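Re: that chain you flagged

S.,

Sorry for the slow reply, it's been a week of failed gels. I finally had a moment to sit down with the sequence you sent. For the record, here it is as I used it:
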Amino acid sequence: MKNKRFYFDYAATTPVDPGVVRAMQPYYSRIFGNPGSIHKFGQEASAAVFKARNAISKFINCDYREIIFTGSATEANNLAIIGVVKNFISKNKVKPRIITSQIEHESVLETCKDLEKENLAEVVYLPVSKDGIIDLKKLKSFLNERTVLVSIMYANNEVGSIQPIKEISEIIKEFKIKHSKLKNSETFFPLFHTDAAQAFNYVDCDVKSLGIDMMTLSSQKIYGPKGVGLLYIKNFGSFFGEKFISPVIFGGGQEEGLRSGTENVPGIIGFSDAVKISFDLRKKESQRLFKLQQYFLGKLKNFNFVLNGPKIGEKRLPNNINIYFSGKKDLIFKLDMAGFSVSAGSACSARMAKPSHVLKSMGFSDEKASESLRISFGRQTDKESIDKLFSVIKNIL
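Prediction finished late last night. Pasting the structure tokens below so you have them in one place:
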């Protein structure tokens, strides 16, 4: 009999909820039509996608037409950034400015770097504090009339830091009103996009109360299937009848013309169910995981360690612990051999074996940025599994 394995990498991906699996099953074999077809098979699939879109819209407080389904959160981030820049430069002769942070996910940073390389945009990468939080004064100072987009992640995937999204929104709104050429109105730009892939399980993602123009969500981070994400786009992608975003994938014109390609019907159905389940569990699960965070760190109090990022509390996701044990190398591999799956940071870059860009941006050395562990909890995490993890770490230390 194989030894039991313990999973502590929920920030990378989550197991699909059993209820989500059941909801998806009919759309693989019985209701299998292409949503673009006009016959009964197609219309059944189309109706299911509509129902899922409408259901998700209720949980983020938007119109169902403001939801664009994509193949991943990475694709949604690309659409938000490239789509806005591409649309802007097609109508204006000045080079647009993007403001983002140094600790964004690679799907934002690499997209911005590529736009810089192609000389299509100027990008400002805001520094962060040792807690992984941006400086609002610096954001304010970098806004100018060429700024078309501010893209700041809601919650960081490595250290769990939660950005002050509402405050950022207010700063952008004040700038818009001040520079508007229309009386008592706002200019189009800057638009405000947030990558909320890590956030939805634990914090409020009401797009109206947050004051955002675009928001990225990921199915696989909330116990839904892989291969599906979404981008919320305010007002269907236009202000005063003028579009502010262009497609980056072309074909049949699905998803309001902004994301061509046959919809992933089972994935979308699963995503919708995962959103509902996560929304319903948000408060209870956040409280439970917060207690487990405190419990685990309490057990480690006699060891020499550094908790990277903000202290446990309202500025940190309740499922995240990013930790450095002085002088201890290869802990990830030793823990994996003992049956415990943790990570060094983002799963999208872990195999490249580079020091974490997030930790380096927070002022850590290459050694600390390379040797720190990200331990992330989820629905299957309990005190028993944490006790076992602690026991193994204690033996290694």
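What I noticed first: The chain has a mean pLDDT of 94.

Talk soon,
D.
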